[in-house]
């Protein structure tokens, strides 16, 4: 009853799931093992190493491809309920297409999944975590809507091959993060930059790709496999700078350009893109002389096809910003940032991490979770949350971070948010994209030639999982900088 729950607000419900996450390019290595072909991250790191802080790449990474047993051992030691990992598209489908399924790729994921199940760990599988086949990028990648069909084709192979054992599927990881690559020359895919156009084409294709995969699952696999299919959003919190209506509206617009643009069509009660986003892009497009909005229009048929295509909302959370209204930019070259037209920054009083974009603002997390709960009303899994440093074994700031952020989850739970699980990012230090191996998120320290080494935060997370309680003994309590 509710009274009993209130007495227990610092402990998680019995059926709440704890896990840790990684992604294929960040941990697997074995980039050209067997018949695996090249993806856009192989291409970026090999041909443009200067874009990565330390010039490193994922050729070997944590060498998880050759260390299934070691990865299982550390997952067991933590006592996690589930492990979130991703499939490498070009390892499974070396041609990009389902006409050829790699025997060795299949074997690797079968071995990993079987080893997890034998260890009593639930596999939670991300189908796409940013490593698009280079061959598909040659066709335009996510800027070409036909890629939605090829993604769905790939997803179908994953369901078909692994769905007897995998019951948690995440179609796409953070379109918010991979779509900006189509508006900037310095991110994957490198040298593709159509700002204010590419990002929106990508968001459109991503929606169609996700929806198609979901329908395939629904029609062909759900009744026999009985799993769930969701999608993961990079979910930021934007706190209005002041209580002025302008700043409150600015924070709302920023939220809709972050989560709404990519998720409202799926989770929003009426589907489609958020009205504020449609209007903002259409207005500037017209002023810039475009004959139609740079944001592709969803037809009524597409709106209905995409709406409701998820069993859960995956929340990746790292960032809280302060948001304020600002004067519109002058009309010139299009950009998504100008379409949004909001100023956003980090409050200088917030504690930082190794990553310049990561601050410790736990109240932003609880506000975000409540807002997502109220706005969409779907079951939520936190599919990533974590803290970067430079790889210290005695990582007290990361432990502190988990104490604060897990408490924020408990706050949201006690306020009625429907949160089913939490994933710490990351199981282990790994190839941190453009931050190379410099900024590290692991509960385990990894230097590929040494055994994986647990950090003090790993010991802490292990204790949380075992007790289902967030102990706050040594936590530095962050002051509430402006909870709404
Ligand atoms: C997640 O993205 C990823 O899903 C995961 O693979 C990654 O390891 C993890 O974060 C930690 O980074 O430098 O100002 O241009 C988080 C979203 C998107 C946050 C890109 C940083 C760059 C900001 N990230 N963003 S900036």
Automatic annotation (TrEMBL):
<dbReference type="InterPro" id="IPR033132">
    <property type="entry name" value="GH_1_N_CS"/>
</dbReference>
<dbReference type="Pfam" id="PF00232">
    <property type="entry name" value="Glyco_hydro_1"/>
</dbReference>
<dbReference type="InterPro" id="IPR001360">
    <property type="entry name" value="Glyco_hydro_1"/>
</dbReference>
<protein>
    <submittedName>
        <fullName>Myrosinase 1-like isoform X2</fullName>
    </submittedName>
</protein>
<keyword id="KW-0325">Glycoprotein</keyword>
<keyword id="KW-0378">Hydrolase</keyword>
<dbReference type="GO" id="GO:0005975">
    <property type="term" value="P:carbohydrate metabolic process"/>
</dbReference>
<comment type="subunit">
    <text>Homodimer.</text>
</comment>
<dbReference type="InterPro" id="IPR017853">
    <property type="entry name" value="GH"/>
</dbReference>
<keyword id="KW-0732">Signal</keyword>
<dbReference type="GO" id="GO:0008422">
    <property type="term" value="F:beta-glucosidase activity"/>
</dbReference>
<keyword id="KW-0326">Glycosidase</keyword>
<comment type="similarity">
    <text>Belongs to the glycosyl hydrolase 1 family.</text>
</comment>
């Amino acid at each position: 009853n509710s009274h009993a729950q209130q007495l227990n607000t610092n402990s998680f419900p019995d059926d709440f799931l704890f896990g840790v996450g990684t992604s294929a390019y960040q941990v697997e290595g074995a980039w050209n093992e067997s018949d695996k072909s090249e993806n856009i991250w192989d291409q970026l790191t090999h041909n443009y190493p200067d874009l990565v802080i330390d010039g490193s790449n994922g050729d070997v990474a944590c060498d998880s491809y050759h260390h299934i047993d070691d990865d299982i051992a550390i997952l067991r030691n933590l006592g996690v309920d589930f492990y979130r990992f991703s499939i490498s598209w070009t390892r499974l489908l070396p041609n990009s297409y389902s006409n050829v399924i790699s025997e060795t790729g299949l074997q690797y994921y079968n071995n990993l999944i079987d080893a997890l199940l034998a260890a009593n760990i639930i596999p939670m599988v991300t189908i796409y975590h940013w490593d698009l086949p280079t061959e598909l990028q040659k066709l335009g990648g996510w800027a070409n809507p036909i890629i939605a069909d090829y993604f769905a084709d790939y997803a179908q192979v994953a369901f078909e091959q692994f769905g007897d054992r995998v019951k948690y599927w995440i179609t796409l990881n953070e379109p918010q993060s991979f779509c900006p690559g189509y508006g900037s020359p310095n991110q994957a895919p490198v040298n593709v930059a159509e700002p204010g156009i590419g990002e929106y084409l990508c968001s459109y294709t991503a929606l169609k790709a996700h929806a198609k995969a979901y329908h395939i699952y629904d029609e062909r696999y759900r009744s026999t496999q009985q799993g769930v299919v969701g999608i993961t959003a990079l979910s930021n919190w934007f706190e209005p700078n002041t209580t002025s209506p302008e700043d409150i509206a600015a924070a709302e617009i920023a939220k809709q350009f972050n989560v709404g643009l990519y998720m409202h069509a799926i989770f929003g009660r009426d589907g489609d893109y958020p009205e504020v986003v449609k209007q903002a892009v259409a207005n500037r497009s017209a002023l810039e002389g475009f004959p139609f909005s740079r944001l592709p229009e969803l037809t009524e048929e597409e709106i209905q096809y995409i709406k409701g295509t998820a069993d859960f909302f995956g929340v990746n959370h790292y960032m809280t910003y302060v948001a304020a209204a600002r004067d519109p930019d002058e009309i010139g070259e299009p950009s998504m940032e100008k379409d949004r037209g909001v100023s956003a920054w980090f409050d200088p009083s917030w504690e930082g991490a190794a990553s310049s974009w990561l601050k410790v603002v736990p109240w932003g997390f609880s506000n975000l979770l409540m807002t997502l709960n109220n706005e969409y009303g779907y079951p939520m899994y936190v599919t990533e949350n974590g803290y970067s440093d430079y790889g210290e074994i005695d990582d007290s700031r990361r432990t502190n971070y988990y104490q604060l952020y897990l408490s924020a989850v408990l706050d949201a739970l006690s306020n009625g948010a429907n949160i089913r699980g939490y994933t710490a990012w990351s199981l282990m230090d790994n190839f941190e994209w453009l931050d190379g191996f410099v900024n590290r998120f692991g509960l385990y320290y990894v230097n590929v030639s040494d055994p994986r080494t647990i950090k003090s935060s790993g010991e802490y997370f292990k204790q949380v999982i075992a007790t289902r309680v967030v102990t706050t003994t040594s936590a530095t309590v962050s002051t509430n900088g402006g909870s709404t």
